[in-house]
Design brief:
Blueprint lengths: L3 E8 L7 E9 L2 E2 L3 E3 L2 E2 L3 E5 L5 H11 L6 H9 L3 E7 L2 E11 L2 E9 L8 H15 L4 E6 L4 H9 L3 E10 L6 E9 L5
């Protein structure tokens, strides 16, 4: 069975973070009611715009998935700055979030997180292309990001989606015992995602 991602976006004037996106996993036989993972129905997957009222839930995920999490204020500042901030849901469960800064055709994927209980179950592979499509629709032509070399799962995901390493930032990340480098990746998103 082949699946395609259907993404519908409503973009407000001048691409001001007014994006409403709904995704469905669809098979040749209609909406997929088979599970994405472990028996959960995938027909309820959707992406919405992050709002300030979501910040406590977002921060809860952030603190469980990162050793050095962003503060809730940093997320609030990103919303206030008009960054492209989105949430990934499975039914009523918040699965993950993304924050992207876009200017002059360049996008920086600042943060993306998947709730620990949903990791390694295929959710990130469904969310990332939606984030890239939204970013492209908002005028991004190239997307950049940093990732820890020790984060093998994230590196594999980004490579799966054709990100290329373009640099290395020495001692970029804080560490428990010492600082860690950052692998700098980029991808052209001016064509189809």
């Amino acid at each position: 069975m082949t699946f395609s991602l259907l993404v519908g976006a409503i973009i407000g004037s001048h691409y001001q973070s007014r994006v409403a996106v709904v995704i469905e996993l669809q098979s040749d036989q209609g909406v997929n009611t088979a599970s994405l993972t472990d028996g959960r129905p995938s027909a309820g997957l959707r992406v919405t715009q992050m709002l300030e009222e979501h910040l406590p839930l977002v921060h809860q995920i952030e603190t469980q998935v990162y050793d050095f999490p962003w503060s809730q204020k940093v997320f609030a500042d990103c919303l206030a700055a008009g960054y492209s901030c989105h949430l990934f849901w499975d039914g009523t469960d918040l699965v993950g979030y993304s924050l992207v800064a876009i200017a002059a055709g360049e996008a920086h994927l600042l943060n993306i997180g998947i709730d620990r209980q949903y990791q390694r179950r295929g959710y990130a592979a469904h969310f990332l292309p939606v984030v890239l499509n939204i970013t492209s629709d908002l005028g991004g032509r190239v997307v950049y990001l940093e990732v820890r070399p020790s984060n093998k799962a994230a590196l594999a995901l980004y490579r799966k989606f054709d990100f290329d390493q373009i640099g290395l930032r020495k001692n970029y990340y804080r560490g428990l015992t010492q600082r860690e480098d950052a692998v700098v990746l980029s991808r052209d998103i001016s064509g189809n995602i």
